[in-house]
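U., I forgot to send this yesterday:
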Amino acid sequence: MTATLETPFDITTSPIPSFGALQSARSEVWANRHALESFQNRVKALSSSGDEGRRKGLGLWMLGLYDQAAKALASHVDDNVAAFTLARCHMSLGKPQDALPIFERLSKSYPDEPKPRGGVLEARLEMESAKDETQAGLNLDAALAKSTPAFQASAEGRYLAGRVSEIARDLYMAVEHYEACREQDPTHRANMFRLGYTAERSGQDDIALDVYWTLARMLPVDKAVLVNLGLLLEDLGRHQDAAACYDTITRHDMTDSKIRMYLADAISGMSMYYDEDMERKEDRLNQILRIPITDFELSVRARNCLNKMNILVLGDLVKLTEQELLSYKNFGETSLNEIKEILASKGLRLGMAREEAVRSIEASRRKTGATDPSDILNKPIADLELSIRARRTVETLGCLSVGDVLAHSEEELLGMPNFGQTSLAELKQKLAEMGLKLKTKNG
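Result:
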């Protein structure tokens, strides 16, 4: 019997027959400040032994205190609800290796239930991705092909199919799978986050915004959700809403310097007046700093280290010093030299402040004559007035000007994710209007 409105959920006495029931009661706990504070007091008052210890662990999960919940539930793995909740805690804490054996045991006990089976496959995916993401995606695809039709059609099956498509860089298919999962299980947080992130990357901002707002209302809110929502809102010119997202994070964690910087930028954007030409110039220069690290040819070790350090774009990387990189586990001189070569190719080096990096980019472009506004090749790509999908593709390639676009062939562009014949035809038409054309394959 699950909790109802007539019988409010009580962590000390209410029956908890399944993880789904626990998940449903979570929204009741976070309904308002009074309910939350009351629930926190009840959880705190529970002892750490026997059934009270189990309930305390479940309550800590409901509060989003995953590390504490994992410690409390570790001695209650004989209870299946507690065991599954413990495995979810491990996944939230980035410890799939600890979650995997629990999911495997529960999958054998409940072979027809998709959640434990989905947990097994997701945990394996996360573990294998740390070594080789592409191979991990292929392994997951093979495992799904061997699964029953019922599992493939389930919310868990569609979510994992979305992960396969995302790794294969088929973002539109990934969004389709994630949306199918959302229809079946709107409470699936991991799916919702992947849907928002993938929709944003593929230029489907309306979907991304809707998903992130929905996740922001699903308390407790994950930090990554607020960060992504804030960045998307800034892109849309909604600086006040973006600032509210960053402010929420800083009120809970004042030590995050990156978020405090985001907040300051968003606040500045709320009242800043500037010349449009200067804004476009600054934006063109910053495009290099926004190039994703994944676009560069890096060794698996270097890429994994940067990912664990939350270094996502070139602008994040230039701010680090050699000492900071070398102090990270498994990051050695070979990886350091790889990074330095990449930065040097863009006129950058490690340990640069943002303003210094922008000046370096500008100076580098002056040396090559790439700032003469009278030259059609130096016109910004914004002048091409491309659709969002086509514009994001050329920006991802690091193109700042029309001349930069001409350095790429049709084959290179078609090899980019979500850039198809329609986008190619659009780009070629815009270039033709300027009397220009793309580089030939052998040119």
